[in-house]
Amino acid sequence: MSGASRLSLNSATTKKWTLREAVDGCVRAGIGAIGPWRDRVHEAGVPEAAAMIRDAGLEVSSLCRGGFLTAADPTGQAAALEDNRAAVLEAQTLGTRDLYLVVGGLAEGEKDVVAARQRIADRLKKLVPFAHDHGVRLVLEPLHPMYAADRALISTLGQALDLAEPFEPQDVGVAVDTFHVWWDPALRGQIARAGREGRLASYQVCDFNLPIAADALLSRGMMGDGVIDFATITGWVRDAGYTGLIEVEIFNQEIWDADGDETLAIMRQRYEELVLPYA
Amino acid sequence: MSGASRLSLNSATTKKWTLREAVDGCVRAGIGAIGPWRDRVHEAGVPEAAAMIRDAGLEVSSLCRGGFLTAADPTGQAAALEDNRAAVLEAQTLGTRDLYLVVGGLAEGEKDVVAARQRIADRLKKLVPFAHDHGVRLVLEPLHPMYAADRALISTLGQALDLAEPFEPQDVGVAVDTFHVWWDPALRGQIARAGREGRLASYQVCDFNLPIAADALLSRGMMGDGVIDFATITGWVRDAGYTGLIEVEIFNQEIWDADGDETLAIMRQRYEELVLPYA
Q: Do A149 and B210 touch (CB under 8 A)?
């Protein structure tokens, strides 16, 4: 088994790289999969991106991302559904089953968390049949509660599983991203539940750095640089039956400023040391 | 009923004020209670602080704070217990039943969240009999998950109630601080549970400001300045049977730099408008 077995580069980790550069970087680093963001896919062209990745011999672990489903006005709701349908088609063209959804936060000026969460459930009902028809699974990603108001009102894995419940597991799954969920006292039980319910669609790893970055979005760190116990969480994910790809997705200014090939070398080494032995 | 009915100033809100200044400020503003921090109490002297607050006709809503129970080494553990016993005695002298506990995060270099949480449970067992003998209730405060690693590994109200379960409700209660728990999808149910279990010991209000401050500790805001729905959460607390004092505790550089009397005037007005009608 290669040291990079099951490892996938989420393209946000090497933010300054085009998709072409990221694909070539993966090939040079011996990394067999990539999880591209839509902006880099659009830049390359969707069919061209699919061909580029396939021709390089890489798998696509997921597409990042759809979501932002919480608009309160009809125009915003219609625009969100249209954008998510486009994302479903892009995932299909890229040959990945898994489309990440960052579901969105409160609407402008809104404070009613309960109502905003209900809108997520309502929008999913409209989106799931379309995704199903195109063989794409919507992957609900719980985000760290510090992003609840402005990015994602799904804040725990348990809540993601509750929201997924009305739908078939092949249509709506959940993601475990260590950065977002490491603190959750219910994590072990909810990962096991995700496995039992057949919804554990994606596993992303990166660290939680302290102090929290001045721009709180950029506190994601290279595995080993922060507070997360990858052995334990990865073991829980393994015990839940997850055998899929493992993406590394890091938003971090220092890493973005670094040389991409160096980033991939460190990423592969840390993955091999801190994650893979427990996966 | 006065507009400031049940309102209490947590002394951290007017950080630059001595206890004397805070007490006088409350009297001028018609605020009938104060929740002092220990540093300001120590500065004044504990019996002197108790007399000063009593002579001004104010109630003491709580003492902030004990905790930091997660040291992994025997010396650190012994020091933590000693400091918490001192805090219990201070609470007793001040005439408040409620001692807030911010339970502490990971030990230096540690990543084992499960083990650190077990140490909290173990330390509580040692501390509760002492607090009981002095008529003091230990109030477990869940902190926002962004502070889990370095301040408090109690991250949800449900987890706080689980930790409290082995103890009598008069010995170990829980706090609801809107800043820390507003995002929790289980909040409504857990507030109701806290009421049923007789453990709802304290209600603190302040807002969650966006963007998160560069120093993440200072993102607490004046009610109305952030994203929190005080009507809804206050209603849940009321429905759980809470009839106690309501503290305002704000860490915010702009508010700390402002004139204290102005801060108290705004605090009282926002409380009267956004909190009290639902309490």
A: yes
| Each residue's pLDDT tens digit, A149-198 | 999 999 999 999 999 999 999 999 999 999 999 999 999 999 999 999 99
Q: How many domains does chain B have?
A: 1
> pLDDT exceeding 70 applies to what percent of chain B?
99
Q: Using a CB-CB distance cutoff of 8 angstroms, which residues of chain B are in contact with residue A234?
A: none
At B145-202, the pLDDT tens digits run 999 999 999 999 999 999 999 999 999 999 999 999 999 999 999 999 999 999 999 9
Interchain pair A227, B155: CB under 8 A: no
Both structure tokens of A98: 């898994």
Averaged pLDDT, B222-248: 98
Query: Measured in whole angstroms, how far is the alpha carbon of residue A204 from the centre of its chain?
Result: 6
What is the interface pTM, i.e. ipTM, of the complex? 0.95
Query: Is A1 domain-assigned?
Result: no
Q: What CATH number does the domain containing A260 carry?
A: 3.20.20.150
| Domain assignment of residue A2, yes or no | no
Optimal mutation site among B70, B140, B229, interface A, most CBs of chain A within 10 A = B229
* Domain with B259 in it: 7-278
Length of chain A: 279
- Report yes or no: B197 and B170 within 8 Å, Cβ to Cβ: no
DSSP classification of residue A246: E
**pLDDT given at position A1:** 46
Give a yes or no: residue B1 inside a domain. no
- Neighboring chain A residues of B212 at a CB cutoff of 8 Å: 146, 212, 216
Length of chain B, in residues:
279
Q: Which of residues 193-252 of A touch B (CB under 8 A)?
A: 208, 210-212, 214-216, 227-229, 232
B185 touches chain A (CB under 8 A): yes
Q: What percent of chain A has pLDDT over 90?
A: 99
* A-chain residues near B158 (CB < 8 A): 185-186
Q: What percent of chain A has pLDDT above 70?
A: 99
pLDDT of residue B1: 46
Residues of A in contact with B150 (CB under 8 A): 210
Chain A and chain B share a number of CB contacts under 8 A equal to 85
Question: CA triplet B81, B84, B87: central angle to 5 degrees?
Answer: 155
Among A158, A227, A232, smallest CA distance to A191 is for A158
Beta strands in chain B (DSSP E): 7-10, 33-35, 59-60, 63-67, 98-102, 137-140, 172-177, 200-205, 207-208, 220-221, 246-248
Using CB atoms, which residue from A144, A185, A211 is nearest to B117? A185
- SS3 label, residue A265: helix
**Domain-located, residue A267:** yes
Inspect the interface and report whether the beta carbons of A112 and B148 lie closer than 8 Å: no
